[in-house]
């Protein structure tokens, strides 16, 4: 008997503690995504831009655009820039033991940038546009680091469960703050105007994002990077070593064709999901004629339904596998955008029913995509591959928002714009069907879970 035979294995307890700390970042950033990106920013910035418009046009980087298309174009520009930047910082994160510090720095920079929206008043839509643009970039960088921590704190068998719980916490946290913001925008305390209430609500989401990031920053452990290769000689700095590794990985990507196939499928179906999220409040306010209180109430409903939906999808994945569960979710997304085409103006009950359907699949499909991809990437390159994951997401998400904005500009209606997104779910699902899960896990050198 060895000296260690009588010592209890404390690794599962330590992993459970870190997992609980990790959930808090989903809780933190989801408040910003929900209150600002999904609900309040688009209608608020459109209203400000309309005040500054001449002949219903404003100048964005020298290009004449309709105020109603401004949010879509801002998302487009920020996602293109993110697609360029994120792969450059992924290798740096992989070579860094203190990933929690990187996570916190990006989160706090994002929250500070988003706070600039508070100062967008009168006709000054530009300061709000800049704040939203920068916050989107820093949010993407923080998510790369956050997702790369998932394989470090959970084994292959439990990854779907951990990822799904993280998303569930995110929807619960975002929903709780949104409930407070709903009260502020609806009741308008202290004589606030609707615009002032919206600005305060968006600022509160940025403060929430920054404050709750402290929990993973303080409670996560450092994880030493896995040595991938011997240095060529000399004493390289972390950036030289990291970017050298990026170049090497780009050359080695063909060795992991299954991971690449999934990335292509993901960029299509996630593009559709992200565009629905980004455009939901614009569709509800501009096409269906609902006010801010109805929109926030509906998104609040979506948040709490999504909390349960993420947990349910995690359990379904345990029984049927992540791939099959994601495919089922994509079928529901197709039905959702088809139903949106026919929603009656001011039809509250159909709008709420559609919100429930979105809530069921929203968190589940994204959470399982994250955990599914983590099985297809080699150890020691988590941030690097998740930077490609988010770059593929953001590098093509501009296409979804661009299609949405162009269809609206050509038809002057958001109905065909929202329905056009069905193409992204159809293509994404068809490509996902061709992904060989077991082969991809083996190629990456990971353990194959009992159910895939």
From TrEMBL:
Top-level taxon of origin: Bacteria
Signal peptide (from-to): none
Pfam families, A to Z: ATG22 (PF11700)
Organism: Nocardioides potassii
Membrane-crossing segments per the record: 27-50, 70-90, 102-121, 127-145, 166-192, 198-218, 258-278, 290-313, 325-343, 349-373, 394-411, 417-435
Protein's recorded name: MFS transporter
Database matches in InterPro entries: Atg22-like, ATG22/LtaA_families, MFS_dom, MFS_trans_sf
Keyword Transmembrane helix on entry: yes
KW Ribosomal protein (keyword) present: no
Topology class, membrane: Multi-pass membrane protein
Keywords noted in UniProt: Membrane, Transmembrane, Transmembrane helix, Transport
UniProt cross-references to SUPFAM superfamilies, sorted A to Z: MFS general substrate transporter
Compartment(s) of residence: Cell membrane
Coiled coil: none
Residue span, Major facilitator superfamily (MFS) profile domain: 258-452
């Amino acid at each position: 008997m060895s000296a260690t035979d009588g010592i209890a294995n404390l690794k599962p307890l330590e992993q459970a503690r870190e997992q609980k700390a990790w959930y808090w970042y989903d809780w933190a950033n989801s408040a910003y995504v929900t209150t600002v990106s999904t609900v309040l920013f688009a209608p608020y910035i459109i209203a400000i831009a309309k005040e500054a418009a001449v002949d219903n046009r404003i100048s964005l980087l020298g290009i004449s655009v309709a105020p109603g298309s401004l949010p879509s174009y801002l998302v487009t520009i920020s996602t293109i820039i993110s697609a360029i930047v994120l792969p450059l910082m992924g290798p740096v994160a992989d070579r860094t033991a203190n990933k929690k510090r990187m996570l916190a720095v990006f989160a706090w920079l994002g929250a500070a940038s988003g706070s600039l929206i508070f100062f967008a008043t009168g006709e000054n839509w530009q300061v709000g546009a800049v704040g939203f643009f920068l916050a989107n970039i820093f949010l993407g960088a923080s998510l790369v680091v956050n997702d790369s921590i998932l394989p470090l704190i959970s084994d292959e068998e439990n990854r779907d469960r951990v990822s799904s719980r993280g998303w569930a916490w995110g929807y619960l946290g975002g929903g709780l703050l949104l409930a407070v913001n709903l009260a502020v925008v609806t009741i308008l305390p202290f004589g606030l105007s609707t615009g002032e209430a919206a600005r305060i609500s968006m600022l509160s989401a940025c403060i929430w994002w920054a404050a709750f990031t402290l929990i993973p920053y303080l409670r996560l452990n450092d994880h030493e990077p896995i040595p991938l290769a011997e240095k060529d000689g000399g004493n390289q700095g972390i950036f030289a070593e990291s970017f050298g590794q990026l170049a090497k990985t780009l050359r080695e990507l063909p060795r992991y064709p299954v991971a690449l196939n999934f990335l292509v499928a993901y960029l299509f179906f996630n593009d559709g999901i992200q565009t629905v999220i980004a455009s939901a409040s614009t569709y509800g306010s501009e096409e269906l004629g609902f006010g801010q209180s109805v929109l926030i109430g509906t998104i609040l409903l979506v948040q709490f339904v999504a909390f349960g939906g993420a947990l349910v999808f995690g359990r379904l994945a345990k029984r049927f596998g992540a791939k099959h569960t994601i495919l089922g979710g994509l079928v529901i997304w197709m039905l959702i955008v088809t139903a949106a085409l026919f929603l009656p103006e001011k039809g509250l009950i159909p709008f709420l029913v559609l919100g429930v359907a979105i809530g069921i699949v929203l968190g589940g499909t994204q959470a399982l995509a994250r955990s599914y991809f983590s099985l297809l990437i080699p150890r020691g390159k988590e941030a690097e591959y998740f930077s490609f994951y988010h770059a593929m997401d953001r590098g093509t998400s501009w296409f979804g928002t661009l299609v949405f904005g162009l269809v609206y500009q050509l038809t002057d209606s958001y109905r065909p714009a929202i329905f056009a997104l069905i193409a992204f779910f159809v293509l994404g699902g068809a490509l996902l069907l061709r992904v060989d899960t077991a082969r991809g896990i083996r190629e990456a050198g990971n353990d194959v879970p009992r159910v895939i």
